[in-house]
Amino acid sequence: MHSDTLYSIGELARRTGLTVKTIRFYSDTGIVPPTDRSPAGYRLYDVDALARLELARTLRDLGLGLAAVRKVLGREASVAEVAEAHADALDVQIQTLRLRRSVLRAVARRGPTTMEMDLMHRLARLSEDERHRLVTDFIDDTFSGPHTNPEFVALMRSTLPVLPDDPAPEQVEAWVELAELCQDADFRAAVRRSAEHQADEHSPDESTDLHHELNEAVRELIHEAVSAGILPASAEATPLSDSLAALYAHAFEHPDAGDVRRWLLARLRITSDPHAERYWRLLAAVNGWRVSPRLAPVITWFTTALRQER
Known about the structure:
310 residues; mainly alpha; Multidrug-efflux Transporter Regulator, Chain: A, Domain 2; three-stranded antiparallel sheet; rod-shaped
């Protein structure tokens, strides 16, 4: 092929697979101007124009807009620069499409009303910063008073919802419910009571690890008792409830052994609040964490045993 070879629009169309109308459009807009004209006034294009058309077609097939194609062909931007910018834009589009897919699947699972579906869509589309702000605003409002355990507040702030780029439908559902829960006045009041109670009972040795260890110990021992058929109101439950009460009293350095049952019942009543437990389970579901077995049935068994007359 010689450099002085010229092609008509029809020949370019056959070589590139583009329509005559598309080539004429590129020509009229200056993206691929004609190299010359025939004596009869028809547009003619050289090898360079053919290459530009091939590049324009490739860029358009990749989804780039005409403005980006014009910049590349006009050497205002390199192919690499435009490709990088377009890839970034596609990342955003892909994330949006994945989230939209998850919302649609969640809608299909739940069959919500039109209003609930709109809420689900709007909440799911929040950015990560906006999701965090919604939860931190709840924490700031709920724990604004001086009578709170700083370790408990720090724990709340360190465990925020992180909805993945491609969430499962159940993660979208959990996030929507968590967002609604954070704005529920009854829930805020319940969590505030829990925080104030923890602040009143706080000791230098109390920590999140201690809470976890106690919960696991209580869960394991009561599970064994239930598996053995021991009812909480039975005499057989007395030694176990006494042992668990002593475990709590020792862990929290509670000096009054005679008052430990009343103190422990009040503490367990706060710990077993269904609102607070629901918050942590929803947070775990959003973040894809392993959800521990519910503590409420265990605490119900324990409190029933503690209430028995001695």
